[in-house]
Amino acid sequence: MIVPVILSGGAGTRLWPLSRELYPKQLLPLVGAQTMLQETVTRLRGLAGLGAPLVVCNESHRFLVAEQLRAIGVNPAAIVLEPVGRNTAPAVAVAALLAGAGGEDPILLVLPADHVITDSAALRAAVQAGVALAEEGRLLTFGIVPDKPETGNGYIRAGEPLGPAKAYTVAEFKEKPDLQTAEGYLASGNYYWNSGMFLFRASTFLAELERFAPQMLTACRKAVAGAARDLDFTRLDGEAFAACPGNSIDYAVMEKTAAAAVIPLAAGWSDVGSWSALWEVGARDADGNVVKGDVLTKDVRNCYLHASTRMVAAVGVEDHVIVETGDAVLVASRDRVQDVKAIVEQLKLRKRDEALLHRRVNRPWGAYECIDAAERFQVKHITVNPGATLSLQMHHHRAEHWIVVRGTARVTCDDKVLTLSENQSTYIPLGVTHRLENPGKIPLELIEVQSGSYLGEDDIVRFEDNYGRS
Questions:
Q1: pLDDT score recorded for residue 322
Q2: Are 182 and 164 in contact (CB under 8 A)?
Q3: Cβ distance 3 to 109 under 8 Å?
Q4: H helical segments located in 153-237
Q5: What is the percent of the chain where pLDDT is above 90?
Q6: Is the separation of the CB atoms in 117 and 123 below 8 Å?
Q7: Which helix (H) or strand (E) holds 380?
């Protein structure tokens, strides 16, 4: 059986302002109608011997990941929550330990959740071709056939051919080269881009990890042994996993093992590491522009233009990226988009929320969006999914007014329970225990007006919660 291990722990800071720490690029529909996580899972359909995916993600993204998988009809084998990021080698190690916990030894297909692959059939064919080698004890990686001298990717030099499958031993891994070196790699025909996708038996990877990074494997074993089930999630032991050394699969195992092999892959691959990469894989119009949303242009060429909440108008610009969201606008030259992460670093230093989340914040019960805020008040638009319930909670520093604008609300306020319909409202005094529910069949929408001395999201004391939040 082939178990897909989907790595969904990244933050994607170079795609700010769409991608943010609490809503990263793999959870966004950046190319097609589906999110990148959903596309990663669905492109495997039709692969022989395919098992349920095992997803490793950041704890903060757990409900988004679960909902996105549910939306495409996928029941994962596990959603593993990383209490801290430790790079890809520990993430795959815990996945291998969990996949083999029942005495089985499946083949793991390790895939980052934030890649674009336009030819899914080519990927499935390459995986199928590599299964026999993985069964023989090879640790396979997929090398992307380069079509240009790319300086932003690592490379793999192919060695001797392996059997009837079009695969080769790995002669060496090469770091990101300068342009002249990259041109030489391309001309030789013997180098491939390092995709970060892998295929191997769980036991083979664990054996090599024990040989080259025993301390890492010991920490991962402790983290899995101390793991706890929480709703649909597997929570690793936080203390054990935090003690684990961080490293990538490449550095920890692939560059050291004698069992490494590479299968060339030409499948329209991109790791979508920047806005310029999105422009390259996007559908461009006659002027070379990729346009998303409500955008008007005049004499604009070779640009990426994305409008999320408002009309964006551009005149007389070339080779630029313009991205609008509800709370931020990015304007950058296409050849400087790698520097967007420096803006995110500035936001973090200034402790600004724009680095972490959007104005619309998703929650397991629905979402809320900040409409207006100033000293001592804040206005939110809250949407509660049908049948969903917020936690039983109270606030030390704020009172709240709720006005229902759509649907039906069931409100608990201390020992009183009342039902509100459209155009009705209620008041939640400071310090009162309360809960909001949607007993109806349609989304509940309400306007919340908060007033008080402190309006932060951490002023919530939860007494009961359906989603395992403390």
A1: 98
A2: no
A3: yes
A4: 179-188, 202-212, 214-225
A5: 89
A6: yes
A7: strand 377-384
